[in-house]
Write a structure and sequence with these properties.
The protein is of the alpha/beta class and 319 residues long. It has helices spanning 11-22, 59-69, 83-88, 90-111, 147-166, 188-200, 221-234, 251-260, 288-294, 302-318; strands at 2-6, 26-31, 48-51, 73-76, 116-120, 170-175, 178-179, 206-209, 215-217, 219-220, 240-243, 248-250, 267-270, 282-283. The model has no long low-confidence stretch (mean pLDDT 95).
């Protein structure tokens, strides 16, 4: 399968590229930088990357790019994907998350081609669901509580509208929290793993944390990207699919798991600056629709994910 990945140089883009190549796909990608980060420089040998800004490029330029690449599947990952950053920069978040999706879909329409577009959304679209909607299915009301979730929900509606009005082959996937090696410490598990590795190495005195009582549905990024490709093959156009493990993990328990993986004592201190102004207490996915359509099941436990993340952070300290 010929695949085009937007935002290919990001955390998920790197893991998706590795999975697609392993599956035998031909992969090309675009990103604002047009370069692979050092952590995934090896991907330059197996996937081409071009510089392209989905906001700055005009429709004709993007349509020509789609025609040149002739993709059978487009994985739209490019986004401002940090909820906390979206609160600090709502306009930039809306411009990229909704505007970027609009520019891409209009370019696909103008290209005259009919690739499948995997529009990557987010479980944060659901906001803070009422207890009767936990675990969260696709019929849960969409009530986002930050600009990130709101902009993603709007992009979902755009994708559905494009399917209904223009027969664009759009499949929407709403992944819940995901984590794994190489993730930025802007995200909670990566921040904890990075700090634990630094304490173990004697580079800091303690791990600074925010609200440890939050429960999240964490799925390993390697399982997440596998779900994306399965939807590219077996998803139904115009449909929305949740993607998550269905298992809730309290942040406090994840931290204790990381602490158990090191021999040195790890002190913990609550940092008020790390407590988010909008923090959803419980968000767990019902991914039965995805399983029924594709046979997807998570293969990696949260314990394995945390161990791999800690090992990746240890390696980063040696670079």
């Amino acid at each position: 399968m010929r695949a085009l990945v937007t935002g290919i140089s990001g955390f998920v883009g790197g893991h998706l590229t590795e999975h697609l190549v392993a599956a035998g796909d031909q992969v090309v990608g675009i990103s604002v930088s047009g370069r692979w980060p050092a952590t995934v420089a090896h991907l330059g040998r197996v996937a081409r990357i071009e510089r392209c800004d989905l906001i700055e490029s005009d429709e004709a330029e993007l349509a020509e790019l789609v025609r040149r690449k002739q993709p059978e599947a487009i994985y739209h990952l490019a986004a401002q994907s940090n909820p906390q950053q979206s609160v600090a920069d709502p306009r930039g978040t809306w411009a990229l998350n909704l505007g970027g999706a609009l520019n891409l879909l209009e370019a696909v329409k103008a290209s005259g081609l009919k690739p499948r577009v995997i529009l990557v959304s987010s479980g944060t679209c659901y906001g803070d669901p009422a207890p009767e909607f936990i675990p969260v299915g696709e019929d849960c009301p969409v009530r986002p509580k930050d600009p990130y979730g709101a902009s993603k929900a709007a992009a979902d509606l755009l994708g559905i509208q494009h399917y209904l009005a223009h027969a664009t082959d759009v499949v929407i996937v709403r992944p819940f929290n995901h984590a794994g090696p190489r993730q930025s410490p802007r995200y909670v598990l990566a921040a904890l793993a990075s700090q634990v590795a630094e304490v173990e190495a004697g580079r800091r005195e303690c791990v600074e944390v925010g609200n440890l009582e939050v429960v999240r549905d964490f799925t390993d990024v390697r399982d997440v990207v596998r779900g994306y490709r399965l939807l590219a093959v077996s998803g139904t156009p115009g449909e929305v699919y949740n993607l998550g493990s269905g298992r809730g993990t309290k942040i406090a328990d994840a931290l204790e798991q990381l602490r158990s993986l090191v021999r040195a004592p790890v002190a913990v201190r609550v940092d008020p600056a790390r407590v988010r102004p909008v923090d959803l207490p419980l968000l767990i996915a019902d991914a039965s629709k995805l399983r029924a359509a594709t046979g997807w099941e998570p293969s990696l436990t949260i314990e394995q994910t945390l161990a791999d993340m800690l090992e990746s952070c240890r390696g980063g300290l040696l670079d």
